[in-house]
Amino acid sequence: MSAGEAAWLAAVVSGLGAAVSGEGVLRGIGDDAAVLALPAGESLIATVDMVVEGQHFERRGPRAATPADIGWRALAVSQSDIAAMGGRPLWALSSLGVPDGMTAAEVEALCAGLAEAAAAYGTAVVGGNLARNPERLVLDVTVLGAARRPLSRAGARPGDLVGVTGRLGAAAAGLALLRGGERLRAACGAAAGECLQAQRRPQPRVAEGLALGALGPQGVRAMCDVSDGLAIDLARLCGGTLGAVLWREALPVPAAVRAAAACAGEDALQWALHGGEDYELLCAVAPEAASAAPRAVARAGGALHLIGEFTATPGELRLAARRGGRGGPLPASGWDPFA
After folding, report:
1. Do 54 and 132 reside in the same domain of the chain?
2. Which of 112, 147, 182 is where one domain is finished?
3. Is 169 in a helix, a strand, or coil?
């Protein structure tokens, strides 16, 4: 290892701090590969996400994210994938492509943000890779988790209820405020801070996912996270064989999102339905668990909202004003990185 490479690696390890150790880590950073012990009776879950400067975040200019926020986000989006299967995100490996002009101090701060997300959700960073990538910063994060009954996107049935955790639209509102400039953010007051925090530091719903997974197939039949937008992710749960109707009055759109929309001249409902990056959990709840599922999530410290119903009409999404209404067509649109 060259002196230059050793210095960069030292910045990474310094930034990660205590995040390099955790449950089941027999051998972590410092060897050719990590050695991990899978908890007895659980299945291994693996996911990977890439975040790219210029597509997922900016490092320079008025919309710049801090290195710590970039690190947090890079890990959190993969932790959310594990949560969406009712699992625990135990271990992470991160590859970092460092652009020209980025300093060792910035890399250390980025890794410190990644370590914050690791500590918040019980994840150990057990390895990775470091390379030059002259044009832009790229992070590729793999997370390994465990679950006794991993959930999937398949399994919803007609008559199941559509459930979603937390809140919708805050991340899209935060992005709009970043794009709108400092004057718009100032006009929005406290609402701007709440929405910007949701955009910069998504919160994986790990405890909520564990609670929902523990209900078994007679409680929650299918689940995914809301990464690309409520409508498009709901279409994925429908899988081409089902449809769904959402109830507008039941959608959890917080006051801060409505306030930001009023300031920006935007529609808060569109942010909630199509904005994406909320990283809430979207699930199919068996009718007999309509009371038990929200209670289980509340005991885990979160909230589950029943916002609609799956139907037997393949591919048809509808938005009604309230439960029992038929409503009108709901486009299955959202974030598409290739559009």
Report:
1. yes
2. 147
3. coil
Which token pair is 90? 């135990």
Can you say whether the dihedral through the CA atoms of 78, 80, 82, 87 is positive or negative? Answer: positive
Chain centroid, CA 24 distance in Å: 24
> pLDDT of 14-40, one tens digit each?
888 877 788 889 888 888 888 999 989
3-state secondary structure of 231: helix
pTM over 0.85: yes
The predicted pLDDT at position 28 comes to 82
Residues 77 and 212 in one domain: no
Q: Tokens 């990590």 map to which residue?
A: 34
Q: CA 272 to CA 256: how far, in whole Å?
A: 12
CA dist., res. 260 & res. 198, Å (int): 13
- Strand, helix or coil at 291? coil
Domain end marker among 147, 181, 198: 147
**Does residue 299 lie in a domain region?**
yes
Question: In this model, does residue 4 exceed pLDDT 70?
Answer: no
Bridge partners (DSSP) of residue 309 are 161, 245
**Helix, strand, or coil (residue 334):** coil
153 within domain boundaries: no
Could you say which DSSP state residue 232 is in? H
153 has pLDDT over 50: yes
The residue-averaged pLDDT of 172-200 equals 93
Question: Does 189 lie in the same domain as 124?
Answer: no
Residue 1 has pLDDT above 50, yes or no: no
Expressed as residue numbers, the domain containing 274 is 161-329
Query: DSSP alpha helices (H): ranges in 100-189?
Result: 104-120, 170-180, 182-188
Asked if residue 336 belongs to a domain, the reply is no
* DSSP H or E stretch at residue 191: helix 190-200
